[in-house]
Amino acid sequence: MDINAMYEALGISRQVLDFGKEIEDSLKNRFKEIDETAEYNQMKVIKAMQDNRVSDIHFAATTGYGYNDLGRDTLEDVYAGVFHTESALVRPNLISGTHALSIALSGNLRPGDELLSPVGKPYDTLEEVIGIRDSVGSLKEYGVTYRQVDLLSDGTFDYESIGKAVNEKTKLVTIQRSKGYDTRPTFSVSQIGQLIAFIKELKPDVICMVDNCYGEFVEKMEPSDVGADMVVGSLIKNPGGGLAPIGGYIAGRADCIERASYRLSAPGLGKEVGASLGLNQSFYQGLFLSPTVVAGALKGAIFAANIYEKLGFPVVPNGSESRHDIIQAITLGSPEAVIAFCQGIQAAAPVDSFVTPEPWDMPGYDAPVIMAAGAFVQGSSIELSADGPIKPPYAVYFQGGLTWYHAKLGILKSMQKLLEAGVLKKGYTQL
Ligand SMILES: *Cc1c(COP(=O)(O)O)cnc(C)c1O
User: Do 258 and 275 touch, CB atoms closer than 8 A?
Assistant: First the structure.
């Protein structure tokens, strides 16, 4: 069977395949750049593992209190090596990105302190952590105030208002690297560095934390290379490489990490406790694979942007922009198209390819949402996944793919479903 017949056996028609091939051929130079970044980051990870003399003894499981868990402690040193920080907390009991961010914040803020977001509203789940939406146990309940400076209309930092917002109470500044599911641009590491330098000039002792979710290994540098005191993320996104079944990390200045650790376990215990329960090997191996996994996801995002842009749909980022995270938004313009897209992503999955996702009224959302994920790890968004709220402008958010080839199949399959549903723009003569 040749490759075309193989794709045909997976339900991809010749016209969709040819269309994809033309787009893929036009992306050779961009893919080469992505591979160069992946190579650099692969070397960075290997260097950190070698410097810390990683050995198979570190993969052994601990139970109970987890005193002297050599594998856990060494993994944290490896993360500190990769992010060029003094210390790190990398744990299965940091159960998600939101939890890691919550621990980093609550560990480092005290009653009477103020938290500042100079980049607009943070990710949805942080609203309740901070108390932007009233919530039991929020930072607000503990007497931590919050201030926010929105971005300017062109998506850049409002330095003038940030200058006014920093005051004697400002203790911690939170900067979200990725746009998440918002419409603003994602910041480059160098932009984040400029913002941190500006803030530190105003107030040198302020703690600058970066929500690094979806950004790890997209560039050669990380926010911790340009002045961030803490970087925080989820292991079921980029740095878990698809292998970590749970977990989060906080890497940064030793005193910041120590305070976070007292919040994660208990005052007096900190980093000294917390059994790794046999998960260490998947953490190490996932981190090892992460640079190439992220490269695959990035290629998929760029391929999708170019396919759908050529088909006449608005895409963010656009097909030629430089990338700072792995999320791709596509405005499909109708409920039918959103559903067809997500069903295509699902149908291309290695797991649960036979189920048909439908929109449903998810708690916390004001419109039905459709989600596609055929993942090995539940909820993992470094694996190929897509979701879209069924409301105008009918956009889908697409990310992940453990390999470029799988991401490619998913995107071709989504296009195939749109074609079959008759919702590709009329007048598109090639199809
Ligand atoms: C995913 C994400 C989070 C939250 O991570 P969870 O693991 O879903 O809790 C926070 N911030 C950003 C920018 C994210 O993309």
Answer: no
Edge-to-edge order in the sheet of strand 114-117: 87-91, 248-252, 230-234, 207-211, 170-176, 114-117, 145-148
Nearest to 250 by CA among 264, 241, 380: 264
CA angle 20, 24, 25 (to 5 degrees): 120
Q: Whose CA is nearest to atom 3 of ligand 1?
A: 97
163 has a pLDDT exceeding 70: yes
DSSP per residue, 228-260: -SEEEEETTSGGGTTT-SS-EEEEE-HHHHHHH
Cβ-proximal residues to 411 (8 Å cutoff; 6+ apart), any chain: 20, 300, 303, 304, 307, 398
* Residue pair 207/242 in contact by the 8 Å Cβ criterion: no
| Ligand 1 atom at minimal distance to the Cα of residue 178 | 13
The answer to whether residues 264 and 308 touch, using CB atoms and an 8 Å cutoff, is no
To 10 degrees, the CA torsion angle through 81, 83, 84, 90? -60
Q: What is the pLDDT of residue 426?
A: 56
Report residues whose beta carbon is within 6 angstroms of any ligand 1 atom. 96-98, 123, 125, 176, 178, 180, 211, 213-214, 234
293-330 in b/e burial notation, b at 16+ Cβ within 10 A?
bbbbbbbbbbbbbbbbbbbebebbbebeeebbbbbbbb
- Gap between the Cα atoms of 167 and 160, Å rounded: 13
Q: Which of 212, 237, 246 to mutate to test the pocket of ligand 1 (most atoms within 8 A of CB)?
A: 237
Read off the pLDDT of residues 263-276 as tens digits, 9 standing for 90 and up: 999 999 999 999 99
Q: Which residues pair with 315 in a beta bridge?
A: 330
pLDDT at 140: 98
Ligand 1 nearest-atom number relative to CA 99: 9
Q: How many CB atoms lie within 10 A of CB 289?
A: 17
